[in-house]
């Protein structure tokens, strides 16, 4: 046994980086699950190329997975890394700038041969592992490929198959380095390869070889690390990604509303995982329909909603654009419908696998005519559950299509989730009109209640036969009407109906910081973690700064204006060129300041701290 | 205690009309189609509340407003996709799609072919008038080549779609053709469409008397109809002509017109078999321009019918199987997953 000591540390950021075929996403997510199970707080950020297999060994082919875990509460995957695992030269080159000075590099020497160095564009004859350029870091090299093959020398398997297990070697080694029990990954492998004993056996062998390598051999590490359980609210937790939480939120809402789900959708990154997830749960009565295109995705969902199910469509920016005419139809029909947009970089096809808060203006305004629709957003992976549940409730309660915004960052990122018990979820009431009431001579499809909500009358209900459609409707009767006064009236009614939803949503709260002060940092969506971390740091330093994060983007909570006017300055950081800020300026006439990062990556805590300090003066 | 039971009144065509003023141009072929649909509806034995008519955009798509059933007038080209979602969730409803050559074959062509291959059990009525009427007279994807219209003052260059060949190419399970000017035939084919389990694709030649008057005149008018059309019937030879003295014979795979008499009798002719997929391919391809010398007569009737499981059945079966195998979904089990930890 080695005589390494174990050092207690609070906080670690690890980046797993390799070629897109190296299995780094799997390695990262396995280490994350293990981290969750021992009770650390954690936040992850997978970052992968748009190409399924970009040319091997090249910079565009690098796939990364960043994991931040801690014995404290954390809200982001971390600004910079403590540890960089580099499976090849390109992975090192692409990620070195994100490594803290003095950080640990674990490099697979086999990925730094002449060919890999050339592909990573290192000058002829230069190998960063050997030229002293990494002197500011703790460099540890190991020939992962060789040792993987060695561990499998008794197994009758092709070399290519053997090499596929090399990510398990790295994973095993890191389990050793962070003093972990590997059971969770062993169970995962048994589940996954139970029917292929040879592959299971080889993966387990290599996983253990990696652990033992740390334990027995001259791994040049004199210290191992241990991160204590985080001091989190008591309760039972699991790890969850945003897209999974979103799918679960839809299933939960469907169950609590006793309203079956129909998902009409077309595959698009980064939204497809919601389809994959929902399609697994047919025993919840869920219907998933992979349509021929984005338009059929939403229109089939409209057909389902018309029939009395909850029609849902999932997409990303380009698909949103294609769906906008159908959204207009849903607004005219005044039926429930959920349009879920997992935003990515834009415009056009943009940056499919990178994150951006790209579509707020599209969600707000991107339709022909006056076409108001509630907009709701999620701010963290686990918040996708609660926020989509809320969107479902609003859609049914107010007979309106709703737009739900998430983005690539929270969709793929994961964090611990203190999941609710189904009994604690508020039931959602669904009212179908059952027939003509006593004394009601004729069904009036656009006769509204006090919230301006019309009845949901589905085919199959005797006595309520009626026609609806995209042409302007005569108030109350729903007959086609080209009358000028009626059109103005109906436009105003549809607007007012959405505005009145503000009476039925919780007031805006201040996340952290005082109720009034010098600077309010106002955010929406996935900037939550970075803003909260930055503001907490500044509060700890004694600055007068607060954070508010908006879930209900349309309509806004009724007290939002009061909050905005309670601060000298308002900063609105966004991963776009300034979208919420336009709407806030428009609606509240305040001179808010923006902070815009449009690089396909999240805003960091550090850069916000600098920006806020500037404003604090 | 005495109870009075009132037998449900049998519905009539009038019960399927609404109070809305029908707003097609006077003389439009749509009037006849509406009338035939209203006429056959009572005989189908379906409660009115279980009938849904979904349309897209175009003149024909005003149809739902005139039918006293459930109905949706949607957006351009998408009625087929909306109907798919409706049928997927409410298989017990009788769903009818009204579309046109522009709506169903141009802007909505993609949804049409995908609906057909999926085989939802619903009825598509494609009103083909070979022109864009609602937008006032541009050529359509079924317009003949070299058509002079507002958008093609020097003649259209596009080669037209052959709707039934397209539908068969998409593996439709029921394809048929009828016309607005033959009420009896149209009624018969509407009933056949309804009776078919699976997606039925009924192309209806419909005259737009404003922008494309007489497009199908040679097929519909008394003087030429008998010579220019052939009404196919299952098990019957392909006979046509005012004197029933002509027929179509298969010379190998080539259909040829022959005179009945000394050389050929009815038994030499092509016997129509609705279940014959290969012959159906040939039949859809009898699509000659009637202005060309030596052309074949245009077929009408049910070209092809086959049986294939419907999409909504498959969807429902997967749900039943999943529940049978795994039990109804347990939300708490789903939310907790397999790996949890507890903080005290």
UniProtKB/TrEMBL annotation, chain A:
<feature type="domain" description="Pyruvate/ketoisovalerate oxidoreductase catalytic">
    <location>
        <begin position="21"/>
        <end position="212"/>
    </location>
</feature>
<keyword id="KW-0560">Oxidoreductase</keyword>
<dbReference type="Pfam" id="PF01558">
    <property type="entry name" value="POR"/>
</dbReference>
<dbReference type="GO" id="GO:0006979">
    <property type="term" value="P:response to oxidative stress"/>
</dbReference>
<dbReference type="InterPro" id="IPR019752">
    <property type="entry name" value="Pyrv/ketoisovalerate_OxRed_cat"/>
</dbReference>
<dbReference type="Pfam" id="PF01855">
    <property type="entry name" value="POR_N"/>
</dbReference>
<dbReference type="InterPro" id="IPR009014">
    <property type="entry name" value="Transketo_C/PFOR_II"/>
</dbReference>
<dbReference type="InterPro" id="IPR022367">
    <property type="entry name" value="2-oxoacid/accept_OxRdtase_asu"/>
</dbReference>
<dbReference type="InterPro" id="IPR002869">
    <property type="entry name" value="Pyrv_flavodox_OxRed_cen"/>
</dbReference>
<dbReference type="GO" id="GO:0016903">
    <property type="term" value="F:oxidoreductase activity, acting on the aldehyde or oxo group of donors"/>
</dbReference>
<dbReference type="InterPro" id="IPR050722">
    <property type="entry name" value="Pyruvate:ferred/Flavod_OxRd"/>
</dbReference>
<dbReference type="InterPro" id="IPR002880">
    <property type="entry name" value="Pyrv_Fd/Flavodoxin_OxRdtase_N"/>
</dbReference>
<feature type="domain" description="Pyruvate flavodoxin/ferredoxin oxidoreductase pyrimidine binding">
    <location>
        <begin position="262"/>
        <end position="474"/>
    </location>
</feature>
<dbReference type="InterPro" id="IPR029061">
    <property type="entry name" value="THDP-binding"/>
</dbReference>
<protein>
    <submittedName>
        <fullName>2-oxoacid:acceptor oxidoreductase subunit alpha</fullName>
    </submittedName>
</protein>
From TrEMBL, chain B:
<dbReference type="GO" id="GO:0044281">
    <property type="term" value="P:small molecule metabolic process"/>
</dbReference>
<dbReference type="InterPro" id="IPR051457">
    <property type="entry name" value="2-oxoacid:Fd_oxidoreductase"/>
</dbReference>
<dbReference type="GO" id="GO:0045333">
    <property type="term" value="P:cellular respiration"/>
</dbReference>
<dbReference type="GO" id="GO:0016625">
    <property type="term" value="F:oxidoreductase activity, acting on the aldehyde or oxo group of donors, iron-sulfur protein as acceptor"/>
</dbReference>
<dbReference type="InterPro" id="IPR029061">
    <property type="entry name" value="THDP-binding"/>
</dbReference>
<feature type="domain" description="Thiamine pyrophosphate enzyme TPP-binding">
    <location>
        <begin position="57"/>
        <end position="204"/>
    </location>
</feature>
<dbReference type="Pfam" id="PF02775">
    <property type="entry name" value="TPP_enzyme_C"/>
</dbReference>
<dbReference type="GO" id="GO:0030976">
    <property type="term" value="F:thiamine pyrophosphate binding"/>
</dbReference>
<dbReference type="InterPro" id="IPR011766">
    <property type="entry name" value="TPP_enzyme_TPP-bd"/>
</dbReference>
<protein>
    <submittedName>
        <fullName>2-oxoacid:ferredoxin oxidoreductase subunit beta</fullName>
    </submittedName>
</protein>
<keyword id="KW-0560">Oxidoreductase</keyword>
